[in-house]
Amino acid sequence: MWLSERVQNLRPSGVRKIFDLARSVRDPVDLSLGEPDFDIPEVIREEGIRWIRKGFNKYTPSGGIPELRGKILRHLRDRGIICDDVIVTAGVTGGLLLALMVTLNPGDEIVIPDPYFVLYEYQTLLLGGKPVFFDTYPDFTIREADLKGALSDKTRIILINSPNNPTGAVYSKEDLDLVARLARKKNLLLFSDDVYDHFVFDRTGQRTYLGGLYENTVTFGGFSKNCGMTGWRLGFAAGPKAIIDSMVTMQQYVFSSVNSVAQKAALLALDYDTTALIDEFMRKRDLIYDGIKDRFRVVRPGGAFYLFPEAPGEDGDAFVERALEKKLFIIPGSVFSRRKSHMHISFAAAEDAIRKGIELLNTLA
User: Fold this and answer.
1) Fewest CB within 10 angstroms: 316, 326, 336, 344, which?
2) Nearest CA among 299, 57, 269, 287 for reference residue 163
């Protein structure tokens, strides 16, 4: 066997398995993948094309082009996020990998709320770390006893994703204050995955960012969700100077540099007004939530574009199998959790598909 022990411990992504299956089926009702159903706004597409034609097609500095780094830094600081420096990365996925590579030693533990985005577990395992999960069921909030119970002498990092994939939860100021307080007490590092930053449906009051509460936080963001730039693979990470400097060095050996024209287009994307897009997603959220809430136990998502309802009989795996028979593509909750009681539904889809999905879900229930 030529494969490393590292890869032998991995299994294919359950999300991608459903996505690939949906592509092979005629006329599916696909509520599976977390990809915006809108194209990159035309003005941003045209900006990328303009820089291609200008010949900006070569390698860029490993940390990203200086003008984009500077603009992202100002953008984050304007939101009250504490950060010394920023690196431009190959999506948030690439940023998380680099950050883990420069902060996590073999045997170190990273504490993650359950449910969680599957990437966190496997990137940690790839680097010899140990993911430790704490329960946020049934309402997907952070409770002090559960978080404290997950901490140990080996804890290095607490990772928070808000708005959350897969639940759509937006953690409250009290939740985030609790995380920051415990991290400061134990001198831990915080990772804040803010990739769904714009997708917050309750826009009243002052927004709280984890990165604004604690100086030893690495904040991750990107352009895949906010501007539909999934295929352009562009993200960023900001935080303490020593960590960002080390990530820039590491990027030289892992990714070399990131998409050149996407970085130029991102200068414009940072200023793009996404209000109309978010309002449309809020209407879709209300449509699907109101459409299934009488048949399913489901928490109304405050952000992102997902629901995480409890399956009938608390068997999400079995329910998803039945849904697939009806050409309804959703994802078992067990892909994102230690439990199999729930299922993951994306409303990043056309309204017609959502309505068909509601009908099928209620019929299956």
Assistant:
1) 326
2) 299
